[in-house]
TrEMBL record:
PANTHER family: METALLO BETA-LACTAMASE SUPERFAMILY LIPOPROTEIN (PTHR42951:SF22), METALLO-BETA-LACTAMASE DOMAIN-CONTAINING (PTHR42951). It comes from Xanthomonas campestris pv. glycines. InterPro entries: Metallo-B-lactamas, NDM-1-like, RibonucZ/Hydroxyglut_hydro, ST1585_MBL-fold. Residues 51-256 form the Metallo-beta-lactamase domain. Coiled coil: none annotated. Transmembrane segments: none annotated. CDD domains: ST1585-like_MBL-fold. Pfam families: Lactamase_B. SUPFAM superfamilies: Metallo-hydrolase/oxidoreductase. This is MBL fold metallo-hydrolase.
Length: 344
C-alpha cells in the first residue's frame, strides 16, 4: 500500500467546495469527514491521491458504503470503517453507482469482509457483478493483463444472493435516515445516483462530472464532464443533471473527487461543456484523423476554461493532469458518433 500523507484540517469554506470538515490519515487511510452529517470521504488509492473516492454514511451505528474502488482498495475501505469507530459487521449496504471498475471492481473482494452487507446496483449492472467475465475481458482488452493486475487486482464475483437490483425510487434505510435511488443515464445506462435527504446531497458517481482538487481556485471547484466509452449519451446526461438539480441540493459527493457545494454554477459549467464537446465531435466527425482532431479540440477547450477559472497550474500541468480524461472523453465521443451513424 502506498504511503499517504496527512492533510490539513479544513477550517474555512472555499466557494464551490464547502470544506466544513476535518481531514485526517489514520492506519494508512486518508479520510475527510463531514462531521455534521456523518459522511466520510475515503480515498481509495486508485489513480493516485485524491483521484477516486468512496463514501461511508453512518447513522445510529449502521453504515452504508457508496462505491468501493478496486480490489486493491479493500485495505483502505476496511481501515476507513474502523477509523469511523465501526466494525465490518455494522456495514449493511454497499451501494454502487455503476459497475465500472474504478467504482465497483473491489465489490466481490470487499464483501468477503462485510458479513452482513448487501450490494445494491442497477438491474443492468447486477449480472456483471455475479459474473464479471465480460467486465474483465473488456477492461483487459483496453489496458492489457499487466496493467489490469497492477491497477485493478483480481476482480472477484459477488454471490448472487447478496445482490439487490434497484432502480428508480428504491430506498435504503439506515435507522431513520433514508437514502433514495434514482436512475441517471448519460455516463452509463445503468448509472444510479443516491439522494441523502438529511444532508440534502447527492452521491453522483460520474453523472455530475469530474472535479480535481488540484484545479481549485479562488472561484471554487473546476468541473468537467466525463464522456468515457462506451455508453455516453449527451442528452441523457443533460437530463440527469437537471434531475439532480431539481432537488435543490446543498452539495454533491463526486467519485472524482470529493464534496463540492454551490452546485448551480457547476451544473451550468457542465451544461456548457457537454454542448461544446458534442459540437467538437460533430465538427471532427468526417475528418480522417477524427480522434486526433477531438483530442486537440478537447484539450484546447479544457485549457481555456481552466484559465478562465483562475486555476493555479500552468497549461502544461493542467494538460498532464487531464491527459487520460481527454483521451477517454474523445473515445466516448467517438462511440457516440458511431452509434448515431448506425441508428441514423
Amino acid at each position: 500500500m502506498r504511503k499517504l500523507v496527512p492533510v490539513a484540517t479544513c477550517t474555512t469554506a472555499t466557494p464551490g467546495l464547502g470544506l466544513h470538515c476535518s481531514s485526517y490519515s489514520r492506519r494508512g487511510v486518508r479520510m475527510t469527514a463531514t462531521a455534521e452529517f456523518n459522511i466520510h470521504t475515503i480515498d481509495t488509492g486508485f489513480g493516485g491521491v485524491q483521484f477516486d473516492a468512496a463514501y461511508l454514511v453512518v447513522q445510529a451505528q449502521r453504515a452504508a458504503l457508496i462505491d468501493c474502488g478496486t480490489s486493491l482498495s479493500v485495505p483502505q475501505m476496511l481501515a476507513a470503517v474502523q477509523a469511523a469507530g465501526l466494525s465490518p459487521a455494522q456495514v449493511e449496504w454497499l451501494i454502487l453507482t455503476h459497475v465500472h471498475l474504478d467504482h465497483a471492481g473491489g465489490a466481490g473482494a470487499l464483501l468477503r469482509h462485510l458479513p452482513h452487507a448487501q450490494v445494491l446496483v442497477h438491474p443492468r449492472g447486477a449480472p456483471h457483478l455475479v459474473d464479471p467475465t465480460r467486465l474483465i475481458a473488456g477492461a483487459t482488452a483496453v489496458y492489457g493483463e499487466a496493467d489490469m493486475a497492477r491497477n485493478y487486482g483480481i476482480i472477484e464475483p459477488v454471490p448472487a444472493e447478496r445482490v439487490v437490483a434497484a432502480d428508480e425510487g428504491h430506498t435504503v434505510m439506515l435507522g431513520e435516515r433514508v437514502l433514495r435511488i434514482i436512475e441517471t443515464p448519460g455516463h452509463a445506462r445503468h448509472h444510479l445516483c443516491v439522494w441523502d435527504a438529511r444532508s440534502r446531497s447527492w452521491f453522483t458517481g460520474d453523472t455530475f462530472g469530474l472535479s480535481y482538487r488540484q484545479l481549485d481556485s479562488a472561484r471554487g471547484a473546476f468541473i468537467l464532464p466525463t464522456s468515457s466509452p462506451v455508453q455516453f449519451e449527451p442528452e441523457a446526461m443533460l437530463q440527469s443533471i437537471a434531475r439532480l438539480m431539481d432537488a435543490a441540493p446543498q452539495a454533491m459527493y463526486l467519485t472524482h473527487y470529493g464534496r463540492v457545494t454551490s452546485p448551480e454554477p457547476l451544473a451550468q459549467a457542465l451544461d456548457e461543456q457537454i454542448h461544446a464537446m458534442t459540437d467538437i465531435a460533430l465538427g471532427c466527425a468526417q475528418r480522417p484523423d477524427r480522434h486526433r482532431c477531438m483530442v486537440a479540440a478537447l484539450t484546447a477547450l479544457y485549457l481555456e476554461r481552466a484559465r478562465q477559472h483562475g486555476c493555479r497550474l500552468d497549461d502544461a500541468a493542467v494538460e498532464r493532469l487531464l491527459t487520460t480524461d481527454i483521451e477517454l472523453n474523445a473515445q466516448g465521443l467517438g462511440c457516440w458518433l458511431d452509434r448515431a451513424a448506425r441508428t441514423g
